[in-house]
Amino acid sequence: MKLLGTSLGKEAWILSVTALIIAAALVYFDDSAPSEYTSMAEDMKTLEDNFRLQNKSCFILGASGETGRLLLQELLERSIFSKITLIGRRQLTFEGKANDDLLQEVVDFEKLDDYADAFKGHDVGYCCLGTTRAKAGADGFVRVDHDYVLKSAELAKAGGCTHFHLESSRGADKNSNFLYLKVKGQVEAEIESLGFERFAIYRPGVLLVDRRESRPGEWLARKFFGAVSAVCSTSMSIPIQMVAKAMASNTLLQPEQKTEILENKDIISLGKVKGNK
Ligand SMILES: NC(=O)c1ccc[n+]([C@@H]2O[C@H](COP(=O)([O-])OP(=O)(O)OC[C@H]3O[C@@H](n4cnc5c(N)ncnc54)[C@H](OP(=O)(O)O)[C@@H]3O)[C@@H](O)[C@H]2O)c1
Questions:
Q1: Does residue 208 line the site of ligand 1, with CB under 6 A?
Q2: Known catalytic residue: 184?
Q3: DSSP letters spanning 169-224
Q4: Per the domain annotation, does 277 fall within a domain?
Q5: InterPro entries under this entry (predicted)?
Q6: 59, 60, 64, 87: which to mutate for ligand 1, most atoms within 8 A of CB?
Q7: Does 10 reside within a domain?
Q8: Which residue range forms the structural domain that includes residue 2?
Q9: Partner of 184 at 20 to 30 A CA spacing, among 5, 8, 142, 233?
């Protein structure tokens, strides 16, 4: 018994030290810079009212996905656009009363040029499109997360969109050795060069969401970061609702720079701004 107790004690000690090291590493690698949004005391309600008066329209790419559907909900609840168009590869059905301000355009992403009209006449565009390498293979991932996204941005720009929002990823870097981060960084840079009047890049960490689709690797990461974020705030993960809220709130703001990069902590901070639902 004594022996067992000693060995369990050792294991517990090793586990505690490991957990401490991981926690310390997370704190060390956390973005320590204070977010510019934490002190933002503007009245969201007034901003929403003013924006609404401008009768703007928008489109959402990826509204069938986890972030996209929450963004759609957020925009419908706030009612800041006079028209919302969902652009996707399939028709979506919604429960309850049909929303007259909601339109759908079903497109073939392999022939997007043939669907240029779908991208015409929107003031604001939101892109929550994406797949995974596990699901689509390396080439398929590049096709969706780079080619489809860039082409959509090009058509949106040509169609008169002035403000483009891109859900990218934490660590996006066009010079990265990791395909995922490299592709995300490349598409960010290429869209920036299109010259939108405003280009907002969101770089969330691991999205904390009970995903409808099964993704075992991501599930593990979510469980880990979900547990860690319950203890301390980290730049590595984010409740997915925060991303949708931040994208909606940021639409109402007028930043000085044409291109803004919102890192994980900025998104959390903006997602929490008073006045948000
Ligand atoms: N998962 C994370 O933890 C994480 C972290 C940081 C950033 N991100 C990035 O955030 C973005 C949104 O992520 P999410 O998890 O909310 O997305 P999601 O739930 O996987 O939804 C992806 C959307 O893209 C569409 N899509 C996928 N493959 C397509 C294809 N071949 N052709 C046309 N449309 C296609 C889907 O349409 P269908 O419904 O028709 O398939 C869906 O609307 C992605 O770019 C992702 O890389 C994710």
A1: no
A2: yes
A3: -TT--TT-SSHHHHHHHHHHHHHHTT--SEEEEEE--EEE---SS--HHHHHHHHH
A4: no
A5: NAD(P)-bd_dom (IPR016040), NAD(P)-bd_dom_sf (IPR036291)
A6: 64
A7: yes
A8: 1-30
A9: 233
The answer on 55 and 138 residing in a single domain is: yes
Q: Is 50 exceeded by the pLDDT of residue 136?
A: yes
Same domain, 2 and 69: no
Which amino acid appears at position 263 of this protein? E
Neighbours of 211 (CB within 10 A): 14
Give the lowest-confidence range in 84-98, 156-170, 173-187. Answer: 84-98
Q: Could you tell me if 68 and 21 lie in one domain?
A: no
Are 17 and 99 within one domain? Answer: no
- The verdict on the CB of residue 130 being under 6 Å from ligand 1 is yes
| Pair 20, 155 in one domain | no
β-bridge partners, 209: none
- Per-residue model confidence (pLDDT) at position 100: 77
Residue 76: band (very low, low, confident or very high) from pLDDT cuts 50, 70, 90: very high
* 112 shares a domain with 60: yes
Q: How many domains does the chain have?
A: 2
Mean pLDDT on 234-255: 93
Q: How many residues in total does the chain contain?
A: 277
